[in-house]
Specification:
It contains five helices and two strands. By secondary structure, the protein is mainly α.
Length: 104
C-alpha cells in the first residue's frame, strides 16, 4: 500500500451523497407505494391518467441509486491527521520541530 493511501480515509456515512441518496430513496419508496396502492379516479382525472406518485417515486429511487453508486465508486478521501502526525514524528527524518534541538 502506498504512503498516500495510508494517510487517507473515506468519509463513509458522513458523505453528503450518501445522506441525499438515502433520503431520496425513502421518499421514492413512499411515493411508489402510494402510487401502486392509491390511484383514485379523481387523481387520474387531474393528472391526465398518469399515476404521478408512481412515476415520481420511481424517478426518486433511480436518483437515489445514482447518488449511492456515485459515492461508492468515487469516495471522498480525507487526510487522517493522527496517522499523518504519528508517521512523520516516528520516522526521525522530520524537520525536527518536536525535538527542541534547533540551533538559534
Amino acid at each position: 500500500m502506498s504512503r498516500s493511501n495510508e494517510l487517507t480515509k473515506t468519509a463513509g456515512a458522513f458523505d453528503i451523497r450518501n445522506v441525499i441518496g438515502v433520503l431520496l430513496g425513502i421518499f421514492g419508496i413512499i411515493l411508489t407505494i402510494a402510487g401502486i396502492i392509491g390511484l383514485s379516479p379523481d387523481e387520474a382525472e387531474r393528472t391526465g391518467g398518469i399515476d404521478a406518485n408512481l412515476w415520481t417515486g420511481i424517478g426518486l429511487v433511480v436518483a437515489a441509486l445514482v447518488f449511492l453508486v456515485w459515492a461508492r465508486l468515487r469516495p471522498i478521501r480525507i487526510v487522517d491527521d493522527a496517522a499523518a502526525s504519528g508517521s512523520v514524528g516516528s520516522s526521525g527524518s522530520g524537520s525536527g520541530s518536536g525535538s527542541g534541538a534547533e540551533a538559534d
